[in-house]
Amino acid sequence: MAHPGFFQRQAHARRNTGLLVFLFLSAVILITLAVCLVGYLVTRSETSSLPFHHWLLSSHGLITAGVVVGLIGTGSLVRWADLADGGERVARMVGARLIDPDTRDPDERKLRNIVEEMAIASGVPVPQLYVMDQEAGINAFVAGYTPGEAVMVVTHGALAQLTRDELQGVVGHEFSHILNGDMRINVRLIALLAGILMIGQIGGFLVRASFHRGSRSNRDNRAQAGLGAVGLALLVIGYVGVFFGRLIQAAVSRQRELLADASSVQFTRNPEGIGGALFKIGLHGGYLESTSHASDMNHMCFGEATRMTFSALLASHPPIEERIQKIQPGLLARLRSRLRDTHPSAELSPSVTAQPQATRLGDIARQVYEPVRAASMSPIARAAPVPARSLSQQVGTVSQDSERYATRFLEQLPATFRTLLYTRAGAVQLCYALLIGHLPREEQKAQLALLPEHPVLGPQPELLAKLLPTLASLGEGVRFPALELAMPALRKLDPEERRTLIANVRRLAAADQKISLFELALTSFLARHLERQAGQAVPVRYRAYKPALPAIRKLLSLMAKAGSRTQDEANTLYREAISGFMTWREEEAPGVEKVTMRQLQEALTALNRLSPLLKPAVIDACAHCVSHDGQVEPREYELMRLIADQLDCPMPPL
């Protein structure tokens, strides 16, 4: 049974891109007409007294319109290309500082612990963490194109003023944006707005130029005045562009913020956490004062990032009072009551009267996370004669079990082991330890001798000696969560070091002349998240299964072999799994195909280009292969994690 919370909202986020393009084109048309009107008034005497609609079709009108569209398009394309690197570029744009994975600051460590718990519970790599040191307001945002390459940015005010529960509520809200696909449209909206706002920026430049430009004659004065008038007109039109930009932000953002609040309650099961954070924003504010990009980022932030007029129309977030009331009716009154003894009543804003009929955020959460019924079941759930436990239903969710698992996992890690994962050298040695941990000591030394010497990337026996015992004592289930904890440190490697690490890992994996499923999963995971194109968006190419059927057959052939003990069992399992995607005559019953590791990589790359609504069936079919016997072994789960990761589908621990 497909899970609507993740896959349907991923598809909805992609459809929102179409809405965004429509609104953008509408704004471009209106701005172009406004600029053409200015051009018409300036050149009217030179083109006789043509009506405006005739002037638009004249050479003057067409050139003016072409220049305006070209400027807007150029501005958007330049910013689009500038943001191609995803979340890290956005963080640098606002002047945020990367939090070192092994930071000693208590507030930063508190944030890292919360984010690690949420990442392990939801099955995504730990995001890169940044802090805006100069911002005293309470705010946060996430940016990136895929869940596996997200970055999270928080203000210093959020770290200093929020309790752990409140900060956890904010992190849960931001993780919802990661899992729902909101980040992609948020980053693209920045690029589109840059083009819309360019006309106003040009107008401001012309106005300033007219004041600073020296003049020597009356003719020069007239030219200077004309330049200033045109600049002033463009500046006014620029404010119209700002209006439309704000309107676009509001159109795509408000409902998503309520859904993210709902998800935070779902993730943390603590409505007072996110409610308290929102209440403190109402008291102390969340505006970004030190960056010139506050208006660009407004739709991405946890709360409003900039002051604005007509906030009821143009605000990208619902009012604080409304958000708190929808979390839980009466919560606002309780929060105000707790602060009444320490704050004057006049300061206890926001203040509204509780609405008994207000929609509970839990109701929204149930609508978001309630599984769809049989009508929207995936093909494998409908067609397979052996019922499969649907793992796709768990993709993109955080359950109480996964939260407890994440907490227990972090608690049982020795302090030295965990600290090493936050350093570049320790994270690199973890990758090597995961590959050689099962070997006898002499074979470990022999394989490590294959690696070239390097201060960071070369084998370091003293660090391996601290990692290997913990990996052995905690068992196979610790491998992927530990690797996710190490990802922020691995991302600190420069591009050349990343390439060398991936080459070293592949050299160790191939040392015994064969590749195990875990070795495949590890090398694929590192390549997926550390190679140059890691942070870039993956466009949809397939909107039906038929064009992607060769890739599906390769993948399910491997999964059927992994989940069976005999060739006959593998063929039967394969036919059950593939039956949701194709039909055949009895005498032409398909069997498993031979699959090389290269073919598997190519198949996963192709399947990542499926429409989000088509991916649940692939996840379900793979799940049927590994769970048909009623249990999922660690190696089978790691294979499922590999597939889910390559398809950009965050899978929590089972």
What would you say about this model in short?
The chain is mainly α and 654 residues long.
What is the mean pLDDT?
81
Strand order of the largest sheet: 1-2-4-3
Low-confidence stretches: 350-389
Query: What general form does the structure show?
Result: globular
Summarize the amount of helix as a percent range: 55-70%
The number of domains is: 3
SS-based class: mainly alpha
Description:
By secondary structure, this protein is an all-alpha fold. The protein has three domains: 1-376, no CATH class; 400-530, no CATH class; 541-646, no CATH class. It is built from 30 helices and four strands. It has helices at 4-43, 52-56, 59-82, 87-93, 106-122, 156-161, 164-180, 182-196, 198-212, 218-268, 271-284, 294-297, 311-314, 320-327, 331-339, 361-369, 379-383, 400-412, 415-421, 424-436, 441-448, 461-474, 479-490, 495-509, 517-530, 549-562, 567-578, 597-607, 615-627, 634-646, and strands at 97-98, 128-132, 140-143, 151-155. It has a four-stranded mixed beta sheet with strand order 1-2-4-3. A hairpin with a 7-residue loop joins strand 3 and strand 4 (151-155). Helix 9 packs antiparallel against helix 10, helix 10 packs across helix 16 and helix 24 packs antiparallel against helix 25. The longest helix has 51 residues, at 218-268. It is globular and about 90 Å long.
